[in-house]
Amino acid sequence: MEKIKTAAALGLFDGVHLGHRAVLAAAAEQEKNGLVPCAFTFPPESAAKKGAAGYIYSEYEKNFMLHDCGIKRVFSPSFADICGMDGETFAQEILCGEMNAAFVCCGNDFRFGRNAACGVDELRRFGEKFGFMVRTVDDVFCGNDRVSSTLIRELLKEGSLERANELLGKTYTMVRNVSRGAQLGRTIGFPTANQIFDEGQLVPKFGVYASKTYADGKWYPSITDIGVKPTVNYGGAPLAETYIHGFSGDLYGSPLQVMLCHFIRPEMKFGSVDELKTRIKADTEYALNIL
C-alpha cells in the first residue's frame, strides 16, 4: 500500500502566532492537492533557548493550536535525537523517510542540520535531490512590528494583552488540566478552576484578567487571576485561577480552555479574605461589562 504523501510545515511554532500561521496555512492549503498537512516541530521544553523568557505554549497547548490551523499530524521528536544530524540526513531520513513529504514550507530564516548549518538554499537543493517542493513564507508584520515570539513574550510579561493577542492571531489561550487547590474560593462564593503553568513556561503578567472559558460545551464569561495568591500565603508555583460566571460543576482532572481577553489590574495583597472577596466581586462585574 502506497504511503500517504504529506505537506510539511517546519518550525518551532512557539506561540503559533501570525507568522507561524502563514507557514501552517501554506501546508494546510495543500490538502486540496491530496497531501496531508503536517508540522515538524520540537517539544517546547527541549528546544527552549538558554536564558529565554520561557516558551509561550506547552506542548499540549501548541498541538491544540496546530490542529486548529488545519494540521492533521504533528511530528515532535526530542531535540536531542535530531540536533546531531547533518542537513542532508535530516532531509532524507526525516522529511522524505519518516514524513514522506512532497511539499515543505518554512519561514525565510529557518535553520536546520547540525549546528543550524543549513538554511533555505540548502533545503531547496535537498528538495531537488529527494523529490519535494519547497516554499518559503515571508515575515509577517502587524502595523510596524515584525511578528515574533520574542516580542509576544515581552508583551505578555508587561500585561499588554490586547497587542499580544493581535500578534498571536488568536486570543492567548490556556488549555490544561484543572488541579485541586485549597478551595478557598468555594468558601467565599467564588469557586475557581486552578491551572498550573509548566516548568519553564512563560507566565503572563501577574494580575486579574477578563476571560472566556469553555466548559461542558459552552463558552462562559470568567475572570482569571494569574500569580501566587499573596493574600493567603500560597507559596507555590505560579498558577491561573479562573472563576467561571454562571457555571457549576466538577472540572477536576479534565482539560479546560481559558482565553485571556483583557488585563484588568496587577496582582494585589489584601488585608483580609473579606477584602479579597469584595474585590473579586468588583472585578467580576467589571469583566462582565467588558465581555
What's the layout of helices and strands?
Elements lengths: L5 E5 L7 H11 L7 E5 L3 H4 L11 H10 L4 E3 L3 H4 L4 H12 L2 E7 L12 H11 L2 E5 L3 E2 L2 E2 L2 H10 L2 H8 L4 E5 L6 H4 L4 E5 L10 E9 L2 E10 L11 E6 L10 E12 L6 H18 L1
Parallel strand pairs: 1-2, 1-4, 2-3, 4-5
Antiparallel strand pairs: 6-7, 8-13, 9-12, 10-11, 10-13, 11-12
Helix pairs in contact: 5-6, 7-8
Overview of the molecule:
- This protein has ten helices and 13 strands.
- With 291 residues, it is of the alpha/beta class.
- It has two domains: 6-146, 3-Layer(aba) Sandwich (Rossmann fold); 171-290, Riboflavin kinase-like (Elongation Factor Tu (Ef-tu), domain 3).
- A hairpin with a 2-residue loop joins strand 10 (207-215) and strand 11.
- The longest helix has 18 residues, at 273-290.
- The mean pLDDT is 91.
N-to-C span:
52 Å
The CATH homologous superfamily of the largest domain is called HUPs
Number of strands: 13
Largest sheet geometry: 6 strands, antiparallel
Query: Which fold name fills CATH's third level, the topology of the largest domain?
Result: Rossmann fold
Strand order of the largest sheet: 8-13-10-11-12-9
**Radius of gyration using CA atoms only:** 21 Å
Global outline: elongated
Range of helix content: 25-40%
Could you tell me the mean pLDDT?
A: 91
Give the SSE string.
EHEHHEHHEHEEEHHEHEEEEEH
By helix and strand content, what is the structural category?
alpha/beta
Helix segment count?
10
The name of the CATH architecture of the largest domain is 3-Layer(aba) Sandwich
How much of the polypeptide forms β-strand, as a percent range?
A: 25-35%
